[in-house]
Amino acid sequence: MDGTSSVSLVPKRTPLHPWHVDHGARMTDFGGWSMPLMYSSIVEEHRATRTAAGLFDISHMGRFRFDGPGSAAFLDSLVTRNIAALPRGRVGYALVTNPRGGILDDVLVYHLADATGGAYHLLVVNAGNREKLAAWIDGHLPPRATVTFHDASADWGMIAVQGPRALEIVQPLVDENLAALAYYEAAEARIAGGAGIVSRTGYTGEDGCELIVGAAAVERLWQAIVEQGSPLGLSPAGLGSRDTLRLEAGMPLYGHELTEEVDPLEAGLAWAVDLDKGHFIGREAIEKSKNDSPRRRRVGLMTTGKRVPRENCAILVDGRSIGRITSGTFSPTLERPIAMGYIEPRFGSFATIVDVDIRGRTEPAEIVKLPFYRRQSKGRSL
After folding, report:
1. Euclidean distance between CA atoms 162 and 238, whole angstroms
2. S-S: 70 plus which of 147, 181, 260, 356, CB 3.0-4.6 Å?
3. Would you give the end-to-end CA distance of the chain in angstroms?
4. Which residues sit opposite 160 in a β-bridge?
5. Is 369:351 a contact under the CB 8 Å cutoff?
6. Class of residue 261 by CB neighbours under 10 A (exposed 0-12, middle 13-18, buried 19+)
7. What is the pTM of this model?
8. Are 88 and 31 in contact (CB under 8 A)?
9. Is 10 exposed, middle or buried (0-12, 13-18, 19+ CB in 10 A)?
10. In sequence order, what are the residues at sequence separation of 6 or more whose Cβ sits closer than 8 angstroms to the Cβ of residue 78?
11. Nearest residue to 233 (alpha-carbon basis) of 165, 159, 160, 161
12. Cβ(204)–Cβ(93) below 8 Å
């Protein structure tokens, strides 16, 4: 999640943009959005998230709502997970694929109930893919009105609070028992006195939650979390630390590890694909890929030196290119360079030593098991 694939000429702004600017955030253009890169430093915000809590504006993400008796069946025809089997109150990570099996986006599917008990589904999509996916969905809606689709992205704001003290900080502001929510569970709740949705999800490798509230209420909620969390070590955090955190956690980013030219099996996301549930767009191509020899494999790499591999650096064996880096950074937690990339499968065994071409000079790197960092999990898996 959390990637970008398109850039607009005039950056959009989230409802929290004035707060970011007023509090000294260094702003950057991200997928057509003006977003905070950092407030203090990437390393400080990264470490605050690992040790206490980080507060992230994710209002740029797209949020699509589906109502009607046919919503689960419709989503089943679009995404790789079995949505009909997704229990109410659960969130599922899934992929939207094209007929060739390439990844159009990675998404979260929420199965929720409103105040009247009526069920609906919410799809959270990457910001840069929102318009593309909205058009894709419109083009595949059934002719009969068994499902209604509403792009609610502009109606709501969205915040992520991540880290070992995240639930402690957020709990006084939410009427739902956060400790009782398992990992990848969600519920409608009263949040800072207003209606909202809370989910025990995130994109950092830490425990925490994501909060959806009305666009007009999100700054008040943000400020309340800052006031509640600052004495406990919480720090507002930008896209810079969000990227280093997700890379340490081995989480793919759209536009880097995930593209329309990559299928889920190459990306190591077979667990997010249910080939037994029936037809969905791309199923036949993915099944063929499963039966054929894979073209490439997503791997983790650690270099032995201090130079950091970056996107598009060639991965070499005996001077021959066997793949490319898709993301690389210096890990504040491990205090060494780390990267992800795609390589020829026969070189993908753990502890294999390869070279990475970093600006014309090679650096030895070891193929390692993902993720680079794993917290002690207290909830069930996604």
Report:
1. 12
2. 147
3. 14
4. 56, 210
5. no
6. exposed
7. 0.95
8. no
9. exposed
10. 96, 136, 137, 140, 280, 281
11. 165
12. no
pLDDT for 10: 83
pLDDT value of residue 4: 54
Instruction: Please tell me the predicted confidence (pLDDT) of residue 212.
Output: 98
Tokens of 154: 């502009």
C-beta of residue 322 within 8 angstroms of C-beta of residue 344: yes
Tokens for 185?
A: 């569970």
Separation CA 264–CA 74 (nearest Å): 20
CATH code of domain 12-61+154-248:
3.30.1360.120
Task: Give the pairing of strands 33-38 and 26-30.
Answer: antiparallel
Question: Which residue type occupies 98?
Answer: N
Q: Do domains 12-61+154-248 and 63-139 have the same CATH topology?
A: no
CA distance 230 to 142: 49
Q: How far apart are CA 229 and CA 226, in angstroms?
A: 5
Residues of the chain with pLDDT under 50: 5-7, 379-382
The topology (CATH level 3) of 63-139 is Alpha-Beta Plaits (3.30.70)
Q: Which residue, among 259, 276, 280, 257, has the nearest Cα to 268 in the 3D structure? A: 257
d(CA 94, CA 122): 12
* Domain map (residue ranges) of the chain: 12-61+154-248, 63-139, 296-382
Residue 382's pLDDT is 42
Cα–chain center distance at 365: 26
- CATH superfamily entry for domain 296-382: Aminomethyltransferase beta-barrel domains (2.40.30.110)
SS3 breakdown of the chain: % helix, strand, coil, rounded to 5? 25, 35, 40
